[in-house]
Every structure is written in structure tokens, then in C-alpha cells.
DeoR/GlpR transcriptional regulator (Azohydromonas caseinilytica), 278 residues
Amino acid sequence: MSSIPDTTATADASASPLLPAQRRQRIVDFLRVHGAVTIGQLEQALGASLSTLRRDLDTLAAEGVVDRTHGGALLRQQAPEYATFEPEPEAAAELSPREKAAIGQAAAEALLPRQSVIFDSGTTVLEAARAAVRRQIPLTAVTNDLVIAQVLGKSPLVQVHMLGGMLRPGSTTVIGQTLIDQAGALRADVLLMGAHAVTENVISETSAELAAVKRALMKAANSTRLLVDSSKFRPRAFMRIAALDEVGELVTDSGLSAAEEERLRALDLKLTVVKVQP
């Protein structure tokens, strides 16, 4: 009896030259760095089709290597400590680059000339800083991130104020009580804030120090614009920052699930969903 050719397998093979075992090892290596991943992030990183990657994750889950989540996976050995796990800054920059760029662009386009803006630390807020510089509008900027300060400082139209304090080990982020005290004297128009996780109505971070800084920055601004890509809608991290309805606007990407988007639109905040160019 002749067999029917598997056209799906053929198409997937052409999309990814790696053998299945090699591809799955790449996925495991990726998860060891990042801890958690979405299908879309794997597609960008590995270049394989979504159907292939779903089968790979299902296989790895059956082997007990990963735990499947909605739209992605967690490395199983990482799951018990996920609340405090965060990727290295260089690794974080590799996650959802197109989504972060689109969110940052939308956030920058909403800024008004001569506004005072607090730029929180994080890779998505960094994209907003880059986009704000490209707009060439005058701003008064405040930040607790060394790289973001350098990016903003490239524009002669942006007056940059750097908050002082203690440099977080292995990071470009400034934290600590000195920073919190300085933030108490500020009153900015808007805060562009990132976060590690959004879970139902809770915004959370991986450490108490980061969460304390973000709460202080929220108090220092008239309004908060939360910038998070769709992969950040995941299990809660270690320390609560605030309730989601305490922010004025949430900017995310179109990878958001329909159920999550419906839930968010029921909250008392402005929801901006940006489309990501392939």
C-alpha cells in the first residue's frame, strides 16, 4: 500500500534546515537562557514554522523537559523558581524584538513636545527612548537606566536627568532608597514603565528592589503608560508593583489572546494594541 506524502512535514523541513533533534536542543538551550518563551519568540529566533514548533514543544512536554503554557512553554526545572527568574539583559533584548520596537514606537508617538517624561528601565522602554529621539521633539527626560540615558542624550532637544542610587549588579538599572527619595521630589507628566509580568489585574517584578523603584516612579508621574509585549501576560512574578487598573494606559502588541484582550478592555484604562510587521 502506498503512503500519502506528508506535505506539511516537507514544508516545515524547507523552513528549518535543522533536524528535529537539533531544533529541540536549540529550544531547550533558548529556554535555559530565557526561562520562558512564546511560540512567536521561537519563530523569530529559530526560523521554523509555528506548526513545527508546536509539535516540538508538545514532544518536549511529553518527555518532561518543558511545561506548556498558553502560547509557549516554561523550562520545567525553571518552573519552581520562575517568580524570581529573569534573563540576563543581553538575553532579554533578544526576546520579541519586533514587538518591543512597535510598542516603543507607539509610546513615543504619543508623547507631546516639551513634556516631562520618566523612562523606566527595560528593553521595551529603551525602544521607546530610541523612537523618541528619532521624533526630534523637545523633552525633559528622567531615567534610572544608564543605557537609556545615553540614548536620550544623543538628542540636543532632550534634557536628560539621571536618577542616582545603587547600580543593580549585572544590570544598567539604578535602584535603592536614594533613588526613591529623589523620585519623591518629582512631578512628571508621564511615566513609561516596563514590567516582568502581568497576571490578571496584577503587575509584578522579580525583585522587591525593582518593584519599590517602579512604585516610586508611578507616584512621581501624573500618569503611567505601561509598555509590555504580549509574552509578559504570564504567571505572576515575585513582587507586586501595582494593580493594572492603576495605570492610565497599557500598550502591547497584537499577539495578545482574544480572551486577554477582552478582559483588558473591561478595565478602567486605555488599551493600545499595536500591529507588528512580519
About this structure: The chain has two domains: 7-85, 93-274.
